From TrEMBL:
Signal peptide: none annotated. The lineage of its organism: Bacteria, Bacillati, Actinomycetota, Actinomycetes, Micrococcales. This is DNA-binding transcriptional regulator, AcrR family. PANTHER family: HTH-TYPE TRANSCRIPTIONAL REGULATOR RUTR, TRANSCRIPTIONAL REGULATORY PROTEIN. One of its GO terms (biological process) is negative regulation of DNA-templated transcription.
Length: 243
């Protein structure tokens, strides 16, 4: 049933439904759930809260969406459809950066997407269109079909993991009310006692360099950008070796 709901605009699911006229559309239910998830996160999302938001009973809500997991699948597909899919242009590196930045921005607009990855990835029209668009960036570059799929998956995985680190760090700071610098200032005296000078020479040097550059334990955005450039170098090396 979830797949039919995902492709409802192609199947005329609601149009063919018999019985009394519906009070809501499936899109209204999905939109309400997205608003709730954006505000409070996926863990706080329940069918009861969604029902209250759209003004129906929980039992009535189940006549629109069969279960919470299916609702999350519908939400994911819809927010993916809201992200841009610009025409591919420029160098291969430009195309990789464009695709990855769209994913990075998408995760930060809807942080609950990080948690949604634990749910079944329903194959909807927007997810399908995104995959087709991403593959088009590498069509004709010299990568074979398997390499094209792997490249898209690698970019997606990197953006997802990097965004998760960034989002979780922000959640930690907001939840504790303590920034990385404040945490370090509070704990540095004890760490200096248990980690005397020279005990961890390489990590001490590297940690000091990172702290001085970013005024924090790390920079998730900088790590993301470094990884993205490394992916680009790897893809370009693959093309050179194939040539």
């Amino acid at each position: 049933m979830v797949l039919r709901l995902l492709w409802r605009d192609h199947l005329d699911v609601e149009q063919g439904r018999r019985g009394p006229r519906r009070k809501l559309s499936v899109d209204q239910v999905i939109d309400a759930a997205i608003v709730l998830a954006d505000a409070d996160g996926l863990e706080a999302l329940s069918m009861r809260k969604v029902a209250e938001a759209v003004g129906v009973s929980v039992m009535s809500l189940y006549s629109y969406v069969p279960h919470r997991s299916g609702l999350i699948g519908l939400m994911v597909d819809k927010v993916i459809g809201r992200s841009p899919r610009p025409e591919h242009s420029g160098s291969l590196a430009d195309r990789v950066r464009t695709f990855s930045e769209i994913l990075w921005d998408e995760y930060h607009r809807h942080p609950w997407l990080v948690d949604a990855q634990s749910h079944r990835p329903w194959i909807g029209p927007e997810i399908s269109a995104r995959y087709e668009w991403a593959l088009e960036a590498f069509e004709g570059t010299g990568l074979d079909d398997i390499a094209m799929d792997h490249t898209v998956s690698l970019i997606e995985s990197h953006a997802s993991a990097s965004a998760a680190g960034s989002i979780n760090a922000q959640r930690l700071m907001e939840g504790s009310g303590v920034s990385d610098v404040e945490w370090w200032d509070a704990n540095a005296p004890l760490l200096e006692l248990v980690m005397p000078a020279g005990s961890f020479p390489i990590s001490s040097r590297v940690g000091s360099a990172v702290g001085e550059k970013y005024q924090a334990v790390t920079s998730h955005r900088a790590i993301y950008e470094y990884g993205l450039e490394t992916i680009i170098l790897g893809v370009e090396a693959q093309l050179q070796s194939r040539a």
